[in-house]
Amino acid sequence: MKSRDTLKHAGKRKQLVDVLIDKGIKDEYVLTAIRKIPRHLFMDSGFGDHAYQDKAFPIGADQTISQPYTVAFQSELLEVERGDKVLEIGTGSGYQTAVLCELGCKVYSIERQQELFKKTKLFLPKLGYRPKHLSFGDGYKGLEEFAPYKGIIVTAGAPYVPKPLLAQLEIGGRLVIPVGNDPQVMTLFIRKSETKFEKHEFGEFRFVPLLEDKN
Ligand code: SAH
Predict the structure, then answer these.
(1) Whole-model pTM?
(2) What does UniProt list as catalytic (predicted)?
(3) Which of 20, 56, 75, 138 is most buried, judging by how many CB atoms fall within 10 Å of its CB?
(4) What CATH architecture is 64-205?
Protein backbone atom coordinates (compact mmCIF):
# COMPACT_ATOMS: atom_id res chain seq x y z
CA MET A 1 0.00 0.00 0.00
CA LYS A 2 1.20 3.53 -0.75
CA SER A 3 2.11 5.58 2.29
CA ARG A 4 0.09 8.67 3.17
CA ASP A 5 1.19 12.26 3.07
CA THR A 6 2.28 13.34 6.55
CA LEU A 7 3.73 16.39 8.28
CA LYS A 8 7.12 14.69 8.09
CA HIS A 9 6.82 14.56 4.30
CA ALA A 10 5.74 18.20 4.21
CA GLY A 11 8.83 19.10 6.27
CA LYS A 12 11.09 17.24 3.86
CA ARG A 13 9.45 19.03 0.92
CA LYS A 14 10.22 22.37 2.53
CA GLN A 15 13.88 21.34 2.83
CA LEU A 16 13.87 20.25 -0.82
CA VAL A 17 12.50 23.64 -1.85
CA ASP A 18 15.32 25.32 0.11
CA VAL A 19 17.82 23.19 -1.83
CA LEU A 20 16.21 24.27 -5.13
CA ILE A 21 16.34 27.94 -4.10
CA ASP A 22 20.04 27.49 -3.26
CA LYS A 23 20.57 26.02 -6.72
CA GLY A 24 19.01 29.10 -8.32
CA ILE A 25 15.31 28.36 -8.84
CA LYS A 26 13.35 31.59 -8.38
CA ASP A 27 9.83 31.10 -9.75
CA GLU A 28 7.53 31.28 -6.72
CA TYR A 29 4.73 29.40 -8.46
CA VAL A 30 7.05 26.52 -9.34
CA LEU A 31 8.47 26.42 -5.81
CA THR A 32 4.95 26.47 -4.35
CA ALA A 33 3.94 23.54 -6.57
CA ILE A 34 6.96 21.50 -5.42
CA ARG A 35 6.26 22.43 -1.79
CA LYS A 36 2.75 21.03 -2.25
CA ILE A 37 3.02 17.87 -4.39
CA PRO A 38 3.59 14.59 -2.47
CA ARG A 39 6.48 13.34 -4.64
CA HIS A 40 6.85 10.19 -2.54
CA LEU A 41 3.44 8.99 -3.76
CA PHE A 42 4.67 9.09 -7.39
CA MET A 43 7.34 6.52 -6.55
CA ASP A 44 7.46 2.99 -5.25
CA SER A 45 6.78 2.99 -1.50
CA GLY A 46 10.24 1.43 -1.03
CA PHE A 47 11.83 4.80 -1.86
CA GLY A 48 9.64 6.55 0.73
CA ASP A 49 12.31 8.19 2.82
CA HIS A 50 14.47 9.24 -0.10
CA ALA A 51 11.75 10.81 -2.24
CA TYR A 52 12.68 14.36 -1.24
CA GLN A 53 16.33 14.11 -2.13
CA ASP A 54 17.17 16.12 -5.22
CA LYS A 55 17.63 12.98 -7.30
CA ALA A 56 16.04 10.99 -10.12
CA PHE A 57 14.67 7.54 -9.16
CA PRO A 58 13.45 4.49 -11.09
CA ILE A 59 9.70 4.30 -11.77
CA GLY A 60 9.60 0.98 -13.64
CA ALA A 61 9.80 0.16 -17.36
CA ASP A 62 13.46 1.33 -17.26
CA GLN A 63 12.33 4.92 -16.75
CA THR A 64 12.95 7.52 -14.05
CA ILE A 65 11.08 10.30 -12.27
CA SER A 66 13.16 13.40 -13.13
CA GLN A 67 15.33 15.10 -10.53
CA PRO A 68 13.34 17.89 -8.79
CA TYR A 69 15.91 20.50 -9.84
CA THR A 70 15.42 19.48 -13.47
CA VAL A 71 11.62 19.60 -13.12
CA ALA A 72 11.86 23.04 -11.54
CA PHE A 73 14.37 24.32 -14.13
CA GLN A 74 12.27 23.17 -17.08
CA SER A 75 9.03 24.44 -15.53
CA GLU A 76 10.62 27.84 -14.89
CA LEU A 77 11.87 28.06 -18.49
CA LEU A 78 8.36 27.39 -19.83
CA GLU A 79 7.11 30.66 -18.24
CA VAL A 80 3.51 29.53 -18.30
CA GLU A 81 0.52 31.33 -16.84
CA ARG A 82 -2.79 30.00 -15.55
CA GLY A 83 -4.98 28.75 -18.37
CA ASP A 84 -2.11 28.20 -20.84
CA LYS A 85 -2.31 25.07 -22.98
CA VAL A 86 0.79 22.94 -22.46
CA LEU A 87 1.97 19.69 -24.03
CA GLU A 88 4.29 17.37 -22.13
CA ILE A 89 6.25 14.61 -23.86
CA GLY A 90 6.99 11.72 -21.49
CA THR A 91 4.26 11.51 -18.82
CA GLY A 92 6.21 8.90 -16.84
CA SER A 93 5.23 9.00 -13.17
CA GLY A 94 3.04 12.08 -13.74
CA TYR A 95 5.06 14.26 -11.36
CA GLN A 96 5.87 16.93 -13.96
CA THR A 97 2.25 16.69 -15.14
CA ALA A 98 1.15 17.47 -11.57
CA VAL A 99 3.49 20.48 -11.43
CA LEU A 100 1.91 21.82 -14.64
CA CYS A 101 -1.58 21.23 -13.20
CA GLU A 102 -0.57 23.14 -10.04
CA LEU A 103 0.59 26.01 -12.28
CA GLY A 104 -2.98 26.15 -13.60
CA CYS A 105 -2.19 24.89 -17.10
CA LYS A 106 -4.45 22.91 -19.38
CA VAL A 107 -2.18 19.90 -19.65
CA TYR A 108 -1.84 17.42 -22.49
CA SER A 109 0.74 14.67 -22.05
CA ILE A 110 2.04 11.76 -24.12
CA GLU A 111 3.67 8.52 -22.93
CA ARG A 112 4.91 5.65 -25.10
CA GLN A 113 5.22 2.99 -22.37
CA GLN A 114 1.86 1.28 -21.99
CA GLU A 115 2.54 0.25 -18.39
CA LEU A 116 3.37 3.79 -17.22
CA PHE A 117 0.59 5.34 -19.28
CA LYS A 118 -2.06 3.15 -17.63
CA LYS A 119 -0.69 3.48 -14.13
CA THR A 120 -0.36 7.28 -14.24
CA LYS A 121 -3.76 7.79 -15.87
CA LEU A 122 -5.37 6.05 -12.89
CA PHE A 123 -3.10 7.63 -10.31
CA LEU A 124 -3.25 11.39 -11.07
CA PRO A 125 -7.02 11.82 -10.44
CA LYS A 126 -6.58 10.12 -7.06
CA LEU A 127 -4.47 13.11 -6.03
CA GLY A 128 -6.98 15.50 -7.58
CA TYR A 129 -4.95 16.23 -10.74
CA ARG A 130 -7.00 16.34 -13.92
CA PRO A 131 -4.92 16.92 -17.02
CA LYS A 132 -7.06 17.68 -20.09
CA HIS A 133 -5.77 14.66 -21.96
CA LEU A 134 -3.29 11.82 -21.41
CA SER A 135 -2.30 10.16 -24.62
CA PHE A 136 -0.61 6.82 -25.33
CA GLY A 137 1.67 7.32 -28.31
CA ASP A 138 4.85 8.70 -29.82
CA GLY A 139 5.95 12.10 -28.59
CA TYR A 140 8.10 12.71 -31.67
CA LYS A 141 4.83 13.47 -33.48
CA GLY A 142 3.50 15.81 -30.80
CA LEU A 143 -0.28 15.94 -30.48
CA GLU A 144 -1.61 17.67 -33.58
CA GLU A 145 -5.24 17.23 -32.56
CA PHE A 146 -5.04 19.85 -29.79
CA ALA A 147 -2.32 22.15 -31.22
CA PRO A 148 -1.17 24.91 -31.04
CA TYR A 149 0.36 25.00 -27.57
CA LYS A 150 1.68 27.90 -25.50
CA GLY A 151 4.32 25.58 -24.07
CA ILE A 152 5.81 22.20 -24.95
CA ILE A 153 8.06 20.42 -22.45
CA VAL A 154 10.04 17.32 -23.34
CA THR A 155 11.09 15.23 -20.33
CA ALA A 156 13.36 12.75 -22.14
CA GLY A 157 16.62 13.38 -24.02
CA ALA A 158 15.95 14.05 -27.71
CA PRO A 159 18.78 13.21 -30.16
CA TYR A 160 17.39 15.99 -32.40
CA VAL A 161 14.52 18.48 -32.28
CA PRO A 162 11.38 16.86 -33.72
CA LYS A 163 9.89 19.21 -36.37
CA PRO A 164 6.26 18.56 -35.36
CA LEU A 165 6.96 20.01 -31.90
CA LEU A 166 8.15 23.31 -33.38
CA ALA A 167 5.20 23.30 -35.77
CA GLN A 168 2.71 22.80 -32.92
CA LEU A 169 3.86 25.87 -30.97
CA GLU A 170 1.72 29.00 -31.15
CA ILE A 171 3.45 32.29 -32.01
CA GLY A 172 5.12 33.40 -28.78
CA GLY A 173 5.05 29.80 -27.53
CA ARG A 174 8.03 28.10 -25.88
CA LEU A 175 9.51 24.64 -26.40
CA VAL A 176 11.79 23.36 -23.62
CA ILE A 177 13.73 20.32 -24.77
CA PRO A 178 16.95 18.56 -23.70
CA VAL A 179 18.85 17.92 -26.95
CA GLY A 180 21.67 15.45 -27.58
CA ASN A 181 22.91 12.07 -26.45
CA ASP A 182 23.98 11.78 -22.81
CA PRO A 183 24.39 14.45 -21.65
CA GLN A 184 21.82 16.70 -23.26
CA VAL A 185 21.84 20.48 -23.57
CA MET A 186 18.72 22.11 -22.17
CA THR A 187 17.37 24.11 -25.06
CA LEU A 188 14.59 26.69 -25.29
CA PHE A 189 12.94 27.63 -28.60
CA ILE A 190 10.65 30.66 -28.71
CA ARG A 191 8.44 30.95 -31.76
CA LYS A 192 8.72 34.51 -33.05
CA SER A 193 6.67 34.14 -36.23
CA GLU A 194 5.35 31.49 -38.62
CA THR A 195 8.92 30.77 -39.73
CA LYS A 196 11.27 32.28 -37.10
CA PHE A 197 12.42 30.61 -33.88
CA GLU A 198 14.78 32.02 -31.28
CA LYS A 199 17.09 29.46 -29.66
CA HIS A 200 18.69 29.61 -26.19
CA GLU A 201 20.88 26.99 -24.48
CA PHE A 202 21.13 26.37 -20.73
CA GLY A 203 23.86 23.85 -19.97
CA GLU A 204 24.01 20.10 -19.58
CA PHE A 205 21.46 17.74 -18.04
CA ARG A 206 21.02 13.95 -18.05
CA PHE A 207 17.79 12.32 -19.21
CA VAL A 208 16.62 8.87 -20.25
CA PRO A 209 16.38 8.85 -24.08
CA LEU A 210 13.36 9.96 -26.06
CA LEU A 211 12.81 6.71 -27.93
CA GLU A 212 11.85 6.59 -31.55
CA ASP A 213 9.37 3.99 -32.75
CA LYS A 214 10.73 1.69 -35.39
CA ASN A 215 7.51 1.41 -37.42
N1 SAH B 1 7.96 13.55 -16.71
C2 SAH B 1 8.33 12.26 -16.19
C3 SAH B 1 9.71 11.86 -16.68
C4 SAH B 1 9.77 10.44 -16.99
S5 SAH B 1 11.25 9.92 -17.82
C6 SAH B 1 8.26 12.23 -14.68
O7 SAH B 1 8.25 13.31 -14.07
O8 SAH B 1 8.16 11.15 -14.10
C9 SAH B 1 10.83 10.17 -19.52
C10 SAH B 1 9.57 9.51 -20.01
O11 SAH B 1 9.52 9.68 -21.43
C12 SAH B 1 9.51 8.00 -19.78
O13 SAH B 1 8.33 7.68 -19.10
C14 SAH B 1 9.53 7.39 -21.20
O15 SAH B 1 8.77 6.21 -21.32
C16 SAH B 1 8.92 8.54 -22.00
N17 SAH B 1 9.25 8.49 -23.44
C18 SAH B 1 10.41 8.10 -24.04
N19 SAH B 1 10.31 8.22 -25.38
C20 SAH B 1 9.05 8.69 -25.64
C21 SAH B 1 8.35 9.01 -26.83
N22 SAH B 1 8.88 8.88 -28.05
N23 SAH B 1 7.08 9.47 -26.71
C24 SAH B 1 6.49 9.63 -25.50
N25 SAH B 1 7.11 9.34 -24.33
C26 SAH B 1 8.38 8.87 -24.39
Answers:
(1) 0.96
(2) 66
(3) 75
(4) 3-Layer(aba) Sandwich (3.40)
